[in-house]
């Protein structure tokens, strides 16, 4: 194990350079170095998707990346967002307004224990951003939601409310076209 | 006397029934060993009802319906007709079958085995489903031309002499060469798609992936012992790694159903009665790697180590070990690169063994990073020190099969 310098932009804030072990997984970096504990360690082997962060790519697109099986140094020089970065905050740093997806999940009681929720919020965010670039036909909406959320595992509430809430967000933002 | 006659009259049909049951069981076993269902079914469709598209460089050939349906299947075939189709590649009407049907191997089938498979297939439920139309480019779209093609290449499998070989070896030869038709993928083909029988079992390329050489010295070089190879055939997984790509369905349709003696026989045939010692490769320390491989280590830690382990030790029931993995030892980096780019779907093996899906990393590694990662994997655990040129890497990446 060796250490090397690591820098990235997380939730629009520059992080680093920090000396970080070359084999540290990203979720441990978020939890242990930055105290960003919202990303959840679930299975630890890339299946449950509770740990996903959003990677913002230079071409303006975004994607989910599983932080439990991806090394921290993969993100060197990259931009990412975690669950902590979605809501608006006031001058004291307190959450003043949830993003539309978070709000809809709360309104529709989409979760109980919330362990999987950060992953779902990020998945739905990536979906909304994709549809903002290219709205989806109504006939293809269910397939898009399934593609976006289908990999995420929830063990207590079930999936229906997450799916309904995601559908409502996409509809209310005008990202569905007829067809 | 009367009682004896009555008893005989009652027993005879029972004996006939038992013989019939035995024949059907044997036919079912042989059909599995010959892996008929792989091409003559589609996923989710009725078994043996045809429809699997076999992509060839000349077009798509579809596996046909071989249920006993009289219109669409082989319901009108006699045992003689069936044998001619299987062993000679001739349909009932005398026209030639496309050589996707491995009659180049099946011509070695014993007649009684062909009859047993026939008896089994004829007892299946007839499925009235037409086979899709095969569409090939000229001259392969002309069935008449196939006779010429077959004549030109004379590419039938010829068996090695069995003199002095053990019974197990001989059984394995029949399973590998005739029934299992392993050579159809593990033998290179020429530009016209004909098997190059002078390079029998020396490895071929199929839809972008290498079906590796099965020669004894090559298997041993890649770490295979007879027992490990038999385990691999039975369970789809062993210390050397797991079956993937086109070999994975072979486990599911065929090899998992065979008795252990058959796996041992196949492995004995391939590695020989006196197998060469499997080569051991010890992990090479970071300091001994070349610059590119040293660069590649960080890509390994970033993208692979989460599942395959920092020391390449793997995680049971999650991801195979890199240390000792046979794919890393192949001379060509093709399969290693393909798996990294394409990923592997979730896999189910025999018993309760599973491996979770591996994501593809084609959009996470540029050609230079891929080259460094390949160097790291091959030099650290594969005993493969040959440097890959950037051109080789970009060429291999472009040869995506699916």
Structure in words:
The complex is a heterodimer of chains A (179) and B (402). Chain A is an alpha/beta fold. Helices cover 32% and strands 22% of the residues of chain A. Chain A is built from five helices and nine strands, in the order E-E-H-E-E-E-E-E-H-H-E-H-H-E. A five-stranded mixed beta sheet of chain A has the order 2-1-5-3-4, with helices on one face. In chain A, strand 6 and strand 7 (95-97) form a beta hairpin. In chain A, helix 2 (100-107) crosses helix 5 (160-172), helix 3 runs antiparallel to helix 4 and helix 3 (117-133) runs parallel beside helix 5. In chain B, strand 6 (237-238) and strand 7 form a beta hairpin. In chain B, helix 16 (367-382) crosses helix 17 (390-398). In chain B, strands 1-2-3 form a three-stranded antiparallel beta sheet, with no helix packed on it. A two-stranded antiparallel sheet of chain B has the order 4-5. Chain B has a two-stranded antiparallel sheet with strand order 6-7. The radius of gyration of chain B is 24 Å and the shape is globular. The A-B interface holds A 4, 22-23, 25, 45-47, 68-71, 73-74 and B 297-298, 301-303, 305-307, 310, 315, 318-319, 356, 359, 364.
Using the alpha-carbon principal axes, give the shape of chain A. Answer: globular
Biggest sheet character of chain A: 5 strands, mixed
Q: How does the helix and strand content of chain B classify structurally?
A: mainly alpha
- Helix percent of chain B reads 40-55%
Query: How large is the radius of gyration of chain B?
Result: 24 Å
Extended strand count of chain B: 9
Mean pLDDT of chain A: 95
Q: How would you sum up the major sheet of chain B?
A: 3 strands, antiparallel
What shape does the CA trace of chain B take? globular
Mean pLDDT of chain B: 89
Radius of gyration of chain A, in Å, reads 17 Å
Strand content bin of chain B: 5-15%
Q: Could you state the order of secondary-structure elements of chain B as H and E?
A: HHEEHHHEHHHEEHHEEHHHHHEEHH
